[in-house]
């Protein structure tokens, strides 16, 4: 009788979205709004480390200027040597030492300043990553459960790990590298122009040719990228169709056709991509050859030789500007990769901002404390988007009683329990605990009153003592052991190599039933008056079931218990059973009373094969009995209604 009311929303990766954001073409991929949104998201996320980035960029700019000192030193040293040779005497030692000191000092200053720049931005990057991960986890802690239902685990993991890491290169390296890539060529060009304006222009002569070839190769890139995105989406859809439906296509002998559709889409994509890339690669190869060192030297040496013959410059000036010309294209690769990384970081920033913008469950302005453990669902409805999961449910759980929720899969059992835990707030109506609306109870106060034991016991990568202490962090070891003894797990833990200090998965492990008893010990230690129990023995191993039942008997004593029922025993032993159908509460009573209902009897027989059948449909009755009962008579027949609902 597992519940699956919460809709599972499949979120497969969207190739059209990711490729546009990440294709290193230097274009926006035909999606300027996304690029602008990514830029705005980055601006917001990087605001806390703006100071680190500014200091890093300043140090990088100074480093780039210092990188010109060796060129100036070499030019100065060359003049000293040529002048000495022309005078027929040895070079002046002091002037030579000054030139060498300028060369070595410039190199040292550049390395030190660049190292400091990267150090500063790396510190900023580490602080930003830690801050973002902390903010994301805080948002997740305050987010309603529906956010996790609607978000794939991959999306959440990507935001916490991958997306935060995708900002690393941008923060730690890119601002420093791009500053150097811009400042150094500009400073070098300025220095070349100071040597001789004609040689300075000659040093950049190949760059306009490179830019023209690249611009020509990028014509129509937006349309081409959009078509590639569409084809990638088609390939992705064929992969999903092939993998997710493999059992069906195999069963009906259609595996070959599904594989052919995928193969055809992949081949079409490959052929188009080849036709697209071939001319672009040829253009890129031509553009790159224009700024190759050999071409730059050829242009500058031949042009410089002509200027020397004309008497405009001397050979030493030509040599200096040739060295400077080799530096100028170095910025192109750095800036090109930075453009690509900007798109990747922008897409990551958008995903992070999407998580950070999640609306938390509101905290009350005036905190109130429940007076006891009575729970009331008052005309409660809840929607998952456009899907109504609960519809007008009214139910009372009195202190010290056990209420079992029963119904077919999708009837709303788990959803009702999540509202009591305030993982979500009702769309309509209210849930009260001890006479107080849950929306008026602070989260910390609520979880002092409500404890959970779920089917799948979640134990963290912590010592077992700390796993149990999650319910009460200040509990002593003796209190922890007392709870473990009540949960029938103390002897098992003490038999482990490190006892209560054992971290599961590191040389020791527990069975599913033993882990369940640790979760029960945690709930016992919490000593909360209200317990939500997603029947803990549903998947227990036979050896553990009896021990778990004994532990649960200790746990539920004197508490208000809500059981999501999966096994017949939970129904028989409950003080009241609430039958849900399609989000509506259709009957409340004891197990014996509800056996008169054919729907309940069918659920009972399905859960307990061989159980005696209930009475025939024409004898069905709903007589009100006991507090909070909602049963009333209804006529038999297919057109009958329950509780006056259609």
TrEMBL record:
Q: Does the keyword Lipid metabolism apply?
A: no
Report the membrane topology from the UniProt record.
Multi-pass membrane protein
Instruction: Give the region (Disordered) as residue ranges.
Output: 1-34, 606-646
Superkingdom field: Bacteria
Q: Where are the transmembrane segments?
A: 52-72, 99-118, 175-193, 199-217
UniProt biased composition (Low complexity) = 13-25
**Where does the ABC transmembrane type-1 domain start and stop, copy by copy?**
55-338
Query: Which Gene3D superfamilies does UniProt cross-reference here?
Result: ABC transporter type 1, transmembrane domain, P-loop containing nucleotide triphosphate hydrolases
The record, for InterPro entries, names:
AAA+_ATPase (IPR003593), ABC1_TM_dom (IPR011527), ABC1_TM_sf (IPR036640), ABC_transporter-like_ATP-bd (IPR003439), ABC_transporter-like_CS (IPR017871), P-loop_NTPase (IPR027417), Type_1_exporter (IPR039421)
Cite the Pfam families for this sequence.
Answer: ABC_membrane (PF00664), ABC_tran (PF00005)
Q: Where does this protein chiefly localize?
A: membrane
Per UniProt, the ranges with Polar residues bias are 1-11
Query: What GO molecular function annotations does the UniProt record carry, in alphabetical order?
Result: ABC-type transporter activity; ATP binding; ATP hydrolysis activity; ATPase-coupled lipid transmembrane transporter activity
Compartment list: Cell inner membrane
> What are the GO cellular component annotations?
plasma membrane
Keyword field: ATP-binding, Cell inner membrane, Cell membrane, Membrane, Nucleotide-binding, Transmembrane, Transmembrane helix, Transport
ABC transporter domain residues: 375-607
| Family per similarity comment | Belongs to the ABC transporter superfamily. Siderophore-Fe(3+) uptake transporter (SIUT) (TC 3.A.1.21) family.
Instruction: Indicate what this protein is called per its UniProt record.
Output: ABC transporter ATP-binding protein
Q: Which organism is it from?
A: Actinomyces bowdenii
Q: What is the lineage of its organism?
A: Bacteria, Bacillati, Actinomycetota, Actinomycetes, Actinomycetales
């Amino acid at each position: 009788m597992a519940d699956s009311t919460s809709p599972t929303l499949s979120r497969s990766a969207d190739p059209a979205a990711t490729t546009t954001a990440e294709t290193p073409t230097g274009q926006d991929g035909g999606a300027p709004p996304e690029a602008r949104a990514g830029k705005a998201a980055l601006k917001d996320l990087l605001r806390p480390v703006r100071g680190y980035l500014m200091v890093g960029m300043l140090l990088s700019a100074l480093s780039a200027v210092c990188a010109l000192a060796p060129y100036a030193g070499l030019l100065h040293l060359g003049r000293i040597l040529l002048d000495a040779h022309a005078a027929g005497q040895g070079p002046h030692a002091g002037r030579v030492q000054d030139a060498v000191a300028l060369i070595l000092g410039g190199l040292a200053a550049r390395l030190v300043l660049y190292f400091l720049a990267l150090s500063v931005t790396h510190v900023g990057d580490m602080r930003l990553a830690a801050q973002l991960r902390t903010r994301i986890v805080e948002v997740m802690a305050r987010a309603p459960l529906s956010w996790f239902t609607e978000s794939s685990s991959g999306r959440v993991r990507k935001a916490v790990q991958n997306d935060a890491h995708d900002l690393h290169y941008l923060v730690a390296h890119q601002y420093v590298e791009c500053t150097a890539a811009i400042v150094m060529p500009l400073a070098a060009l300025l220095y070349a122009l100071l040597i001789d304006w004609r040689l300075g222009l000659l040093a950049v002569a190949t760059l306009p040719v490179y830019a023209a070839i690249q611009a020509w190769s990028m014509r129509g890139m937006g349309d081409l990228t959009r078509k590639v995105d569409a084809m990638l989406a088609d390939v992705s859809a064929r992969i999903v169709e092939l993998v997710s439906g493999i059992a069906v296509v195999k069963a009906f002998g259609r595996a070959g056709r599904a594989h052919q559709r995928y193969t055809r889409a992949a081949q079409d994509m490959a052929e188009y991509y080849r036709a697209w890339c071939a001319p672009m690669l040829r253009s890129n190869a031509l553009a790159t050859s224009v700024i190759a060192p050999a071409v730059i030297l050829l242009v500058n040496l031949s042009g410089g030789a002509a200027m020397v013959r004309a008497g405009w410059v001397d050979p030493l000036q030509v040599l200096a500007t040739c060295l400077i010309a080799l530096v100028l294209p170095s910025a192109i690769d750095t800036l090109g990769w930075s453009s690509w990384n900007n798109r990747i970081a922008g897409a990551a920033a958008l995903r992070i901002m999407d998580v950070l913008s999640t609306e938390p469950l509101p905290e009350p302005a005036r905190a109130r404390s429940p007076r006891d453990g009575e729970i009331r669902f008052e005309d409660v409805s809840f929607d998952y988007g456009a899907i109504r999961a609960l519809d007008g449910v009214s139910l009372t759980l009195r202190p010290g009683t056990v209420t079992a929720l029963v119904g077919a899969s999708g009837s709303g059992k788990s959803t009702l329990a999540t509202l009591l835990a305030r993982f979500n707030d009702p769309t309509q109506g209210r849930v009260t605990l001890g006479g107080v609306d849950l929306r008026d109870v602070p989260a910390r106060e609520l979880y002092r009153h409500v404890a959970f034991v779920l089917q799948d016991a979640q134990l963290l990568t912590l010592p077992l003592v700390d796993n149990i202490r999650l319910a009460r962090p200040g509990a002593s070891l003796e209190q922890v052991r007392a709870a473990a003894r009540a949960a029938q797990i103390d002897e098992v833990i003490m038999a482990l190599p490190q006892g209560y200090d054992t971290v599961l998965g590191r040389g020791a492990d527990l069975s599913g039933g033993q882990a369940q008893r640790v979760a029960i010990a945690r709930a016992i230690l919490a000593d909360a008056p209200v317990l939500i129990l997603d029947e803990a023995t549903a998947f227990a191993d036979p050896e553990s079931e009896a021990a778990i039942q004994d532990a649960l008997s200790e746990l539920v004593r004197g508490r208000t218990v809500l059981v999501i029922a999966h096994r017949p025993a939970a129904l028989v032993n409950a003080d009241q059973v609430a039958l849900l159908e399609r989000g509506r509460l259709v009957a409340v009573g004891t197990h014996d009373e509800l056996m008169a209902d054919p729907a309940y009897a069918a659920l009972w027989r399905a859960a307990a094969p061989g159980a005696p059948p209930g009475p025939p449909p024409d004898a069905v009755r709903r007589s009100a009995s006991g507090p909070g009962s909602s049963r009333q008579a209804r006529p038999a027949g297919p057109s009958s209604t329950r509780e006056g609902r259609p």
